[in-house]
Amino acid sequence: MKIAVDFDGTIVEHAYPKIGKERPFAIETLKSLAGEGIKLILWTAREGELLEEAVEYCRKRGLEFYAVNSSTPEEDLFHDRNRTSKVLADIYIDDRNLGGIPDWGEIYEMVMGARTHVKRKRPWWKRIFRR
Prior knowledge:
The protein is of the alpha/beta class. It contains four helices and four strands. It has one domain: HAD superfamily/HAD-like (Rossmann fold), CATH 3.40.50.
């Protein structure tokens, strides 16, 4: 399973171009998900030095990403003009979601539930409506 996660407003509070205060339990939750074998992709509008600062911020807290602004570590979205900038993931975590971003405890529960769903290949609507 791959999860694309935004940085500003999701891992940290909005303070762009600076790095905002860490959202409670964001790093810990993401590290737990990575520990479960989930591939995390940092998917952010940050580029250049600002992107490097965000990656380093997470790295210093023990959070490493499978890929950054790309679907795989080998992919280079910025130099391949035939590619879209959207990364391929199973789940996207972003503060701009409809209804905003839930707290990280809820996110963990949703992701782990979705992971179970993916393993069983059971339609999401059957899980919700208990069919």
